[in-house]
Amino acid sequence: MMKKIIQISFALILSVTLLSCKNTKQKLQEYVKTYNSTAAVFKAKDVRLTTARGYVNDNKIELRFETNLTQNTVNKSNAEVSFPKLLKEMIAKNQIPKELIDEGVQFDAYFLADDNTVLVKQIINKESITEL
Q1: pLDDT score, position 121
Q2: Fold of 2-131
Q3: How far is the C-alpha of 26 from the C-alpha of 91, rounded, in Å?
């Protein structure tokens, strides 16, 4: 367990170090690559898989959090509370780098039900980050 934490921490520190020497598009691509390579060890309540996709021309990153929750009003209501908390924790841990947000990259985050329908969508950008 400790070994995995060290590996994840090292990967995040390495990605932050690499990000500091590059332009925004390069940072975006590097972030997506690093995020997907460490996604297998990502742990969060109800999340079974997470992936990132980068859209360099749009200056956007899409984060998908696939769950084992069924699409219903109870799960949707619970997700509307828990998902922003998860994203806030990820920003605090630099799993979603504030540096990229400050440079104008938008994160479109989707919390998906077991049938890949959207339970909650959250957009993180310069304007919306204060709401989190």
Answers
A1: 97
A2: GMP Synthetase; Chain A, domain 3 (3.30.300)
A3: 20
